[in-house]
Amino acid sequence: MVATSFDYQKATSVEQAISLLQSHDGDAKLLAGGHSLIPTMKLRLNSPALLIDVSKIEELRGIREEDGHIVIGAMTTHYEIASSDLLAKKAPMFVEAAKVIGDIQVRNKGTIGGSLAHADPAADWPAVVIASGAKIKIHGPDGARTVDADDFFTGFYTTAVGENDVLTSIHVPVPPKGSKSTYAKFPQPASRYALVGCAVQLTMDGNKVSDCSIGFTGVSDAAFRDSNAEAALKGKELSGESIQAAADACADGVDIMSDHFASEDYRKHLAGVFLKRALENLK
Ligand SMILES: Cc1cc2nc3c(=O)[nH]c(=O)nc-3n(C[C@H](O)[C@H](O)[C@H](O)COP(=O)(O)OP(=O)(O)OC[C@H]3O[C@@H](n4cnc5c(N)ncnc54)[C@H](O)[C@@H]3O)c2cc1C
Asked: What's the distance, CA 7 to chain centroid?
């Protein structure tokens, strides 16, 4: 199908993008990589009167270390994250996840900010930002605010980003010494979206897990942090026994999705399998 007609404007600053959004009263959309928005426009699930291209706003790009955090600009592409030496060294699950998103075209155009704002329940980034303890920075008509990744995803394709807001950056705390992280995913064979994706960050004190955060995507209508699985690991050695206990505890009490790709039971099973794989990677 073909999208309905729309106007197009390239914004040169975050302030301009916000004022264009405000002046169109809910009838404008930000355009980042276009890899989620354009397909929905072609299917006429979205028919904005104006597309505001934010991809050339320089302040929204790049990856840098600042005040104990790694700051990733919203318009940083999946490819740029996959190629980042800083993230490979300090937060490797970001690089691992970026490498398994879609195909090379998707990775070249798609952005982390666009993905987080879109909040597809099968997208990879939500699990990773949750497990990393990131804060998401949002600019709106009333100024800037930050939202914990745990609170950012509010439901099916919904987030803390308001109608006239721009998601500007992701702030990832530099993990403490002794930390390691990984991302394990079962991709839908055609689209590569996650049937189940599991991001894990562990901090070890000697041979015991002193801290641990686990984010899941693909399992429920929004990505979530799995505190039951985390509790099964904290204070324990990373052994076959503790890994199995975490896998048994995961996705408990969660409203699990069921669709033509995977039933509820199968998704729950996959959540355990991919948590185990992630933890085995970190042993
Ligand atoms: C064939 C295919 C395979 C894919 N496979 C995967 C996969 O395996 N894993 C995965 O995670 N994703 C996958 N994707 C999705 C891809 O990662 C998209 O790039 C991503 O979901 C959206 O990013 P974007 O930059 O393209 O955003 P856009 O499509 O431009 O925008 C998406 C939405 O976010 C809004 N938005 C964009 N930027 C901002 C911002 N800064 N602030 C506020 N709102 C904003 C837009 O208005 C729009 O509503 C796939 C896509 C395709 C087409």
From this structure: 29
Residues with CB under 6 Å of ligand 1 are 29-37, 39, 54, 74, 101-102, 106, 110-111, 113-115, 117-118, 120, 123-125, 161, 166-167, 191-193
Q: What is the pLDDT of residues 167-197, one digit of tens each?
A: 999 999 999 998 999 999 999 999 899 999 9
Give the ligand 1 atom nearest the CA of 40: 29
**Does residue 1 lie in a domain region?**
no
Strand ranges inside the chain, DSSP E: 7-10, 28-31, 50-53, 63-66, 69-73, 135-140, 143-148, 153-155, 158-159, 166-173, 179-187, 194-205, 208-217, 224-225
Atom 53 (ligand 1) nearest CA = 35
pTM confidence score = 0.97
Final residue of a structural domain among 173, 192, 212:
173
CA of 213 to the centre of ligand 1 (A): 25
Instruction: Give nearest CA residue, ligand 1 atom 5.
Output: 102
pLDDT interval class at 1 (50, 70, 90): confident
The range of the structural domain enclosing residue 24 comes to 7-53
Q: What is the CATH number of the domain that holds 30?
A: 3.30.43.10
For the cut 90, the answer to whether the pLDDT of residue 25 exceeds it is no
pLDDT at 267: 97
Span 27-41, pLDDT tens digits: 999 999 999 999 999
Amino acid at 120: D
- Atom of ligand 1 lying closest to residue 32 CA: 30
Ligand 1 atom with least separation from CA of 74 = 41
Mark whether 152 and 192 lie in a shared domain: no
Give ∠ CA 274-149-246 in degrees, rounded to 5. 30
Residues 121 and 164 in one domain: yes
Atom 28 of ligand 1, residue of closest alpha carbon: 34
Residue 99 C-beta-side C-alpha neighbours within 13 Å: 13
Question: 115 C-alpha vs ligand 1 centroid, how far in Å?
Answer: 4
pLDDT of 80? 98
